[in-house]
Amino acid sequence: MSYPGRLHVSSDGNILQETGHCGNQHPDPTAVKVQKVKHAIKRASIETHNNPQVIVAEAVATASEPTAARLPVTRSLKRTIRRKRQKELPGLKLPRNLEELVVPETLKLTSKGE
After folding, report:
1. Is 27 left (phi over 0), alpha (psi -120 to 50) or beta?
2. Residue 36: phi, psi to the nearest 5?
3. pLDDT band at residue 54, thresholds of 50, 70 and 90?
């Protein structure tokens, strides 16, 4: 485990020297919200077939202004979606003939679920 700082204390408990960042770190509420938005983007990239621009736009629209300001740039978020889809969704095998052609059930439904 790595610690961002060190605290040198004398035998009687007095602080002699502090290097780096020590002490109690208060969680940054905006950073927590940014992580939640990024997680929602990753989840939507797997659960929907929406265009990456649409997924990012929906996530940013629901985020507060300070949260949206601290999100990575759109290009990076779209790359994250691409990587998540490549990792989680296996590519479809190309059939050599019509007998091998199998269309997954999720791709047989329209946006209305019909």
Report:
1. beta
2. -65, -40
3. very high
Give me 71's structure tokens: 């999100």
Beta-bridge partners for 6: 19
* Cα angle for residues 45, 49, 52 (degrees, 5° grid): 55
Amino acid at 47: E
- CA distance linking residue 49 with residue 61, whole number of Å: 19
pLDDT for the residue 30: 87
The structural domains of the chain, with segments of one domain joined by +, span 29-89
Among 73, 3, 92, 81, smallest CA distance to 46 is for 81
Q: How far apart are CA 84 and CA 46, in angstroms?
A: 7
Q: How far apart are CA 62 and CA 41, in angstroms?
A: 11
Cα 81 to Cα 38: distance, rounded to the nearest angstrom: 10
CB 67 within 8 A of CB 34: yes
pTM for the predicted model, two decimal places: 0.60
SS (H, E, C) 26-48: CCCHHHHHHHHHHHHHHHHHHHC
